[in-house]
Amino acid sequence: MEIIYRKEEVYKLENGLEIHYFPYPDYHTNYMGFVIPFGANMSDYLIDGKRVKTGIAHFLEHRMFSSEDGDFSEEFARIGAYSNAFTYVDRTSYFFSTNYDAMEAFKLLFKLVTEFHSTEEKVINERNIILREKGDSESNPSQSLNLLLNEKLNDLPSLKYPIIGTKNDIESTTKEDLLLAYETFYRMSNMLLIIAGNVDINEIISYINENYKEPKFFHKLERIPYEEDYNKSFKRVIKIKKDVAENIQTLSIKADLKEFKQKYSDAIYDKIANVTLSLLFDIGSGFNDIFNELDVGQNSLSFSGFELDDICSLSFRYLGKTNNKPNKYILDALENPEKYINTRDIELFEKYNLGRKFKMLQNMSYVHYEALINLERDHDMFESIKEDFEVTIKEIKEFANVLRNGVIIKGEVIPK
Q1: Stated pTM of the model
Q2: In which element (H, E) is residue 170 found?
Q3: Rounded CA gap, 408 and 237, in Å?
């Protein structure tokens, strides 16, 4: 397979917008997306001395699709473009893909993020939609348990409460709240534009410069001084009863990776974390063997590293009665990873992962999405694959031990 190392072009406009362009000559599909580096973490701030409500970023994402003529989604569809958006802890992203006129679709996307159209009536209607969405989500027993664990584990509002927000904050959100958040966070100087495809980048830059003027007024934005307490006392085992067919168990860990991450570049840190978690907990690991022996339901592993104060959250979920075997394995594996990983395992995984990464980087959709979600990259995606840093048991043990020494909480949903 021929490997093509593409050049990531970066442009910084006078209005403050940063553009990351991944050229794909001879391709017919184009992907473009604006990223606002604020999501659920908006609720960690005060605007003009007023607390930003939880869920405001998600609520605003819904309302931004309201256009003068109706709905932006329908306008994108009419010109043959697929559009979508998502809100995460530290970002809100709006994007499209199209095989047709990319410039026409870009103008729509530009209009979507630079204009706010809403009425109090539309906000009330949206509020009801979001409350139903929240109710549907929280009716899931696993989700109910996760929300409870997050509330116990975290102090920052953005990590403590769900991205969709609390019921009280959703019910009290007004058009004025949304407009205030929009005017504060939705500025070109506060955005990234990610493009992958075959476009005339100069035409896009000219259009932005001609059609956007940065507002001269500013709202006062200040971070609420929260401190994550890693030694706080609370119940470390939580059990709830729900209408479920079998037990649902979880183990959650919160750890501060700031000191560990300072030793490495982002690319090397990602490599260490990926090798460690995959070899300890993914398919083919001792963790997976436990579930084969127990013959219980599917297990799922999720790992999230937050740039918010470098807080890492690691969570496990499994079904059925497991006699605590998975929890014992998890804690022992994080304390003594050398018992479960050897040098040969690392070498084989590195080769497999390198081949997988090469293949994925040939996929334009993957490259665009990776750029959308990795806001703080200190490396070019195509250059980082040439990284010659070799992960050893030493780095794996150091990383695993940081997780093992974090705050640990166990949860279980028990059938009524």
Answers
A1: 0.84
A2: helix 167-172
A3: 9
Q: What is the pLDDT of residue 90?
A: 86
> Taking Cα atoms as reference points, which of 19, 56, 356 lies closest to residue 202?
19
**C-alpha distances in Å from residue 39, one per residue of 157, 191, 270, 293:** 12, 12, 22, 41
| H/E run at residue 203 | helix 201-211
Going through 151-200 in order, the beta strands assigned E by DSSP cover 192-197
Q: How far apart are CA 335 and CA 402, in angstroms?
A: 9
Mean predicted lDDT score pLDDT of the chain: 83
207/253: higher pLDDT = 207
Residue 30 DSSP one-character state: E
Amino acid at the residue 287? F
Coil, helix or strand at residue 163: coil
- Closest among 170, 187, 84, 182 to 134, alpha carbons compared: 170
The answer to whether the CB of 261 falls within 8 A of the CB of 255 is: no
SS3 state at 138: helix
**What is the average pLDDT across 124-129?**
92
Is-contact 55 170, C-beta < 8 A? yes
Amino acid (1-letter code) at residue 167: K
Q: Say how far residue 65 (Cα) sits from the centre of its chain.
A: 21
What is the 8-class DSSP label of residue 389?
A: P
Q: Helix 120-138 and helix 56-64: axis angle, to 10°?
A: 120
Q: What is the pLDDT of residue 112?
A: 95
Please count the other Cβ atoms lying within 10 Å of the Cβ belonging to residue 112. 22
